[in-house]
Amino acid sequence: MKKISFLLLIVSVFVSCSKNNPTDEEHPQNKNCKTLSFVQLIGEGPQGTYYEETSTFYYDSQNRVSKIEKKYKNTIKFGRFTYESNTIKYSEDDLDVIYTLNNKGLIINTLRKNPYNTNEPQVNYSYNSSNQLALITSEDDNYFYGPTKTTRELIYENGNLVKIVGTTSLLNEPKTLKGTFTETFTFTKFKAPLYNSAYLELFENASSVDDSENLLYSLGYFGITSKNMVESMTPPINNTDNKTRYYDSKADQSGNVIEVIPNSSDIYKYNYQCE
Hints:
Layout: H1 4-7, E1 33-42, E2 51-59, E3 65-72, E4 75-83, E5 87-92, E6 95-101, E7 107-113, E8 123-127, E9 133-142, E10 146-157, E11 160-170, E12 177-191, H2 196-200, H3 212-218, E13 228-234, E14 245-246, E15 248-251, E16 257-261, E17 267-274
Antiparallel strand pairs: 1-2, 1-17, 2-3, 3-4, 4-5, 5-6, 6-7, 7-8, 8-9, 9-10, 10-11, 11-12, 12-13, 13-14, 15-16, 16-17
Protein name: DUF4595 domain-containing protein
Organism: Sphingobacterium athyrii
C-alpha cells in the first residue's frame, strides 16, 4: 500500500447520467447521491487529537466534478477538470494531465506534464468485453535501472476486482529481466465508495491534489467499478510491509459507506447530498 498521503484521496462520488458520462449501469451506487466533502482525520495529534484534512467537491451543470478544493490547516490547494469531446483535462499549479477517451467514453491513455519531472511516463489502458479495466501498461525511464515497462492485469469475480498480476521488465539488460507480483482483495457486502481505486492502488502515478485518476475512476471513466467495499488487501510478498491490511467500514441504511478506518489511527468520513 502506498503512503498515507495516497489514502487521503479516498472519496465517494455519486453522479447522475449525462450524455458525456459513461452509462448508468456502470455506477452501482445511488445515482441520486453525490459527495459534497470528504474529511480525513489523520493520525493522532497532541493529547489524542487528530489532524484534519477536508476535500470539498464542486459540480458543473451536468453534475460532473469540475473543481476539487483540499484544505489542510492554513493551506488550500485546487484541482480543476475540463471535459471535451474525446479528452478530459486536469490542471493544478504544477501539473497538467490529458486523458484520451475511446468511442465508449473510457480513458485509454494518460499523459502527464510536470515541469519538475520531464520523464513522466505515458500510461495506456485496455478493457475486457464487460467494460471493466483489464490491463494497465506504462513505460518509464527509471533513474537507477534505465527504461522499464510495467504491466498490470486485473482479474474480476462477481463484479469485484479480486486480483492484480503485475510484471516489471528492465529493458536495458542484455536479456530483458522480468519480475512479477500479485495483489489479492476481499470485499464486504457494502456498496463500494467509488474511491475504492485508492484502496486498490490502481493508479501508481497519481500525485495530484486529489488524485485525478482515482476521481475519474469513480465516475466510470475507467470502466465498470468494483461493486463492493474492500475488506482486505494482501500486497506482493516482497513488499516492505507484506501483511494483509483490513479496512473497517460503516454504512448507512442504504448501504452507502459513511466511515472507513484503514488503520489504527486514521478515520475517513463522507458527507453526501441525496435527493
